[in-house]
Design brief:
Helix content: 10-25%
Protein name: Peptidyl-prolyl cis-trans isomerase
Pfam family, one: Pro_isomerase
Keywords: Isomerase, Rotamase
Number of helices: 2
CATH superfamily: Cyclophilin-like
CATH architecture: Beta Barrel
CATH class: Mainly Beta
Oligomer: single chain
Order of helices and strands: EEHEEH
EC number: 5.2.1.8
Structural class: alpha+beta
Number of domains: 1
Distance between the termini: 18 Å
Largest sheet: 2 strands, antiparallel
Function: PPIases accelerate the folding of proteins. It catalyzes the cis-trans isomerization of proline imidic peptide bonds in oligopeptides.
Number of strands: 4
């Protein structure tokens, strides 16, 4: 499954692995569907490497999960080595995720 992030300079396709990280994906997809991330700025850009976005509160602390609290991290060895990851995996590390 994937989510497309629409930006002013083009689209970014984000692969999500719901079978490996079900709660994280459920939370992320529900927040996307509720337009929670609309209007977020890219607050960090390292040319040729990565960008960071996703804190609509503007505080650097994120917001709440769909359950209104933190939830346990989901980790999968598969995601470290999966061929679909194109050698790039990222960890969503916000209080609301």
């Amino acid at each position: 499954m994937s989510v497309t992030l629409h930006t002013d300079v083009g689209d970014i396709k984000i692969e999500v692995f719901c079978e490996r990280t079900p709660r994280t994906c459920e939370n992320f997809l529900a927040l996307c569907a509720s337009n929670y991330y609309n209007g977020c700025i890219f607050h960090r850009n390292i040319k040729g490497f990565m960008v960071q976005t996703g804190d609509p509160t503007g505080t650097g602390r994120g917001g709440n999960s769909i359950w209104g609290r933190k939830f346990e991290d989901e980790y999968s060895e598969y995601l470290k080595v999966c061929p679909q990851c194109f050698k790039i995996c990222f960890l969503m590390s916000c209080l609301h995720l």
